[in-house]
Amino acid sequence: MKKVIIAMLIALVIPCCIFAGRGLFDLTLGAVAQSSYDIEDVKSGELKNFDIKNLAFGADVEAKLSILAIDAKGLYDNANKGLSGIVSANLALDIFFVRVKAGLGYEYAYNFETKSFYFGNGNEYATEFADFKDAAFDINVGVDVLLGPITVGAYATLPTETSISNGRWDKFFGAFSNWEQAKLGLTVGFAVL
Prior knowledge:
By secondary structure, this protein is α+β, with helices and mostly antiparallel strands. The protein contains 3 helices and 10 strands, in the order αβαββββββββαβ. It has a single domain, classed as Porin (Beta Barrel), CATH 2.40.160.20. It has an 8-stranded antiparallel β-barrel with strand order 1-2-3-4-5-8-9-10. A hairpin with a 2-residue loop joins β8 (about 135-145) and β9 (about 150-165). The radius of gyration is 18 Å and the shape is globular.
């Protein structure tokens, strides 16, 4: 009996998640602000010395088809004098007016002073696009509130030590115990499609 109830709930929830929100296809353009503080800084009270210079501002583009969302954030990072961001592929479930996202992505950065470009996070990165497989993944999770065509959201990006070439999947799952290293950000967007 329990299996039948669970099967019926799944049969009801999956179509609701696929067809809820804005429909099968959604394109959102918006703005993003990301803090250079991580969760560990927040816990230790480092935010008492908060400075606007520790925020990076930029643009956010998200394209969603059914439950797959591709998200690209581009930020001007004043502290590092360059551009940075993340491109991620997420599973995105719309439940009524809330979108819950989780997926994998790659960080990227360009420094104006040194004219250097890299993919991946500080754990494992590549400086040439051909070496992309050597760049470490980031775990990207977020929650958006869908207010008609306007989206307001929060996200966290957690660096891992896992890349395609090194295959350290034990380190990937171990990253969940290091949430203190996650970077936090806020987004505001407008659905254009």
